[in-house]
Amino acid sequence: SVEKMKGNSTILVTGGAGYVGSHTVVELLKNNYTVIAIDNNVNCYATGKDKPESLKRVEKITGESVTYYNVDIRDKEALDKVFKLHKIDSVIHFAALKAVGESVQIPLTYYQNNVGGSSTLFEVMAKNGVKKLVFSSSATVYGTPQFLPITEKHPTGQGCTNPYGKTKYFVEEILKDVCTSDSDWKVVLLRYFNPVGAHESGLIGEDPSGIPNNLMPYISQVAVGRREKLQVFGSDYPTVDGTGVRDYIHISDLAIGHLKALERMLQPHYTSWKAYNLGTGRGYSVLEMVKAFSEVSGRQIKYELVERREGDIAACYADASLARAELNWTATRDIKAMCRDTWNWQKKNPKGFQTS
Ligand code: NAD
Ligand code: WQD
């Protein structure tokens, strides 16, 4: 019955033009879902309010067209129109601001966009009788790990050090309350570890504006000659080589995780909410990542060891066994594939989507 429902269901994807969103839309289309993507283009490359370049590339990859609306999730009327125009079955909710440092500078903008926007979206969903949602959460809700690997039972919300992380925790809590208030709701909270890589075609990938905050885009911009050298934040952590350890996960594996979550949610006995880690279960240090990228690209990656970055933790990696058992999902792409696909995207698009 899951097979039968698949072809018939229409999925609203908020933030569909972003990094995780665009890769997920590819997998949805490949599996015969109908996709309605909305985005306000605040963090994706587009001419004005037109269809973002990432979604045009998705159409190129899949040979399918993507219905797109320039809609802000804080705009109740505009959202409502989308629900009236289409028979939406479920929502995958990616739209959010995600720069940790920026969230410390402009916390209210983050709370309004990520928490206010989400709550508006849930209100409009309920009003239109759409009560199935997959939410982009983050390993950041676990704060400083009390044990490793991190299971879904690890406490959340204690020691989220920045407003961005708190918005993820707050939205999780809002969704739990919504499920308590109305048993029609079905929610999956997906806690991503560190998404990296790009679609194997090299047509879509991560396209940070300005100086990248995250490791992998920074490394690849050094490799392509756009930045001089990587700063390695901290070399005295209690890890394999003193540098920070993270659970990097290939973006296409992550995207497929959303399809598995949808399928789980559509099972008739699924009720209320459940959280799943999406990671590989294995950690790599910053220097291990530099080495792997250098091997795959054949480029030397210049780096210097500098002070720790404020708010960083030593190590973080998932226990990914719950997603394997209940979602029938496991990451299959290794660190080499992550570096190879990042490099392929970077080489073909040295300036990201603006290259086209
Ligand atoms: P992204 O910035 O590439 O994508 C988010 C998209 O949402 C962007 O296209 C942006 O324009 C859009 N958006 C933002 N605010 C909006 C609003 N008010 N209305 C409509 N659209 C809006 O980020 P991403 O890396 O694809 O992240 C997607 C989701 O996954 C986010 O919720 C993020 O917090 C979460 N997440 C990301 C990571 C990561 O490292 N990339 C890790 C954990 C969780
Ligand atoms: C990885 C490692 C750095 C950049 C962040 C958010 C988290 C989640 C994913 C959304 C760390 C080191 C990095 C650089 C470096 N986002 N590093 N030099 O911090 O694990 O997670 O993105 O939910 O909430 O906090 O990812 O890629 O920034 O860092 O040495 O220039 O690379 O110290 O050890 P992080 P990251």
UniProtKB/TrEMBL annotation:
UniProt entry tagged with the keyword Ribonucleoprotein: no
Catalytic activity: UDP-N-acetyl-alpha-D-glucosamine = UDP-N-acetyl-alpha-D-galactosamine; UDP-alpha-D-glucose = UDP-alpha-D-galactose
Record flagged with keyword Metal-binding: no
Top EC class for this record: isomerase
Family according to the record: Belongs to the NAD(P)-dependent epimerase/dehydratase family.
Subunit relationships: Homodimer.
PANTHER family according to UniProt: UDP-GLUCOSE 4-EPIMERASE
Name recorded for this polypeptide: UDP-glucose 4-epimerase
Natural source organism: Molorchus minor
